[in-house]
Design brief:
The protein is α+β, with helices and mostly antiparallel strands and 450 residues long. The protein folds into 2 domains: 13-231, 2-Layer Sandwich (PmbA/TldD fold); 242-448, no CATH class. Helices cover 23% and strands 36% of the residues. 43% of the residues are buried.
Amino acid sequence: MPDHPIATLPLTRDAMSDVARRAIAHATSRGASGSEVEVSAAVGQSVTVRRDEVETVEYNRDKGLGVTVYFGKRRGNASTSDLSPEAVERTVDAACAIARHTAEDDATGLPDAARLYKGVPPDLDLFHPWGLSVEEAIEVARRAESAALGVDKRITNSEGATVSSYDTDFVLANSLGFLDGFANSKSSIGVGVVAEDKGGMQRDYWYTTHRDPARLEPAETVGREAGQRALRRLGGRKLATLEAPVIFEANIAASLLAHFVSAASGSSLYRHSSFLIDRLGTAVFSPAVRLLEDPHMRGELASSYYDAEGVATAPRVVVDAGVLKGWFLSSYSSRKLGLETTGNAGGNHNLLLEPGKQDLEGLLRTMGRGLLVTELMGQGVNPVTGDYSRGASGFWVEGGEIRFPVEEVTVAGNLLDMYRGIQAVGSDVLVRGSKHAGSILIDRMTIAGD
């Protein structure tokens, strides 16, 4: 594998590869039947401005080594940030000592060699260093905050504007001969503000994030959106408890997918702590839902040609016309379940909720009367039963139009009922991580208020 030098990072790819090879060789010399290592290097910068004053400037420049060794069915792991030859050997020795004192586990071990990624991966277009100086980052943050405060005189305070950028590179290797890695970047702009009138104060925020800073929303756009969102929440009312349709706005809709991924992950399944146990091949969502996983999308935040073990990834359909088609499994969890790995060690890759034809306004018209949820609070989700109850704020909708802001309510139901009750998915897809989703209209939930 050729070196991929990145001037700002503390280690070159060749240097990381040398550390990985030394660690694996030392583990073998200590009697390990198998080993895997990850060597990483990263640089990052984060600047926060509040009320036009610089509040924080953070900078990190890190490198590290993680080692996992196997002695038959015993496993041990250790890590260090010191990559000197002596420290690497000490870290491997520590992992070996741990392995010798752990209980045997029939599911543990390296991935199957036949499942490892082979070949030279095409460029996924994941590395786009922003290269902002601290002064330039401060200026971007000030522009975002100024735009937010300038929306209306009722925007009276700021929670700050933050501009951040992170560049990382890594090498993943194991004793089966796998050795590869790739560089990636992530940049973001975010701002939160407070709006105030005689009725009280409200806050809201907005942010944008991407691998490529050229694809971020402009700082002024982020600021204006944050200001407008805070402003429109003024005059929030409570509701009487009722049952009604609910729309989860795109910026929070991905949280519903996150609960699904958690329940469909191997660790939840073999521990019997999932409401999806024994539901493979059954209708878990409404027929309106099609969910795809595509690890090979160029430039996206969860793209990779292999998972955290080096197992090759592939695009697949996870949910088709509401029917659950697959789990999210690593080598370990798949062995625990007697199944095959799905290449999801480390989590899901780009998960795409297939959008419908209506934007948010269209979904509001379809709903007619109900609650548009724009923010969720609390963690009231039971992963075993699927019971769901979270604090929420948003807007009451009548006649397909927003009538007034709503605050201090709770939306409740059961995730299976909610998934099966999805009437439509919006075309307003928002991507801020590994899940791509538009707004989601659910036919009925309990809205608990006064």
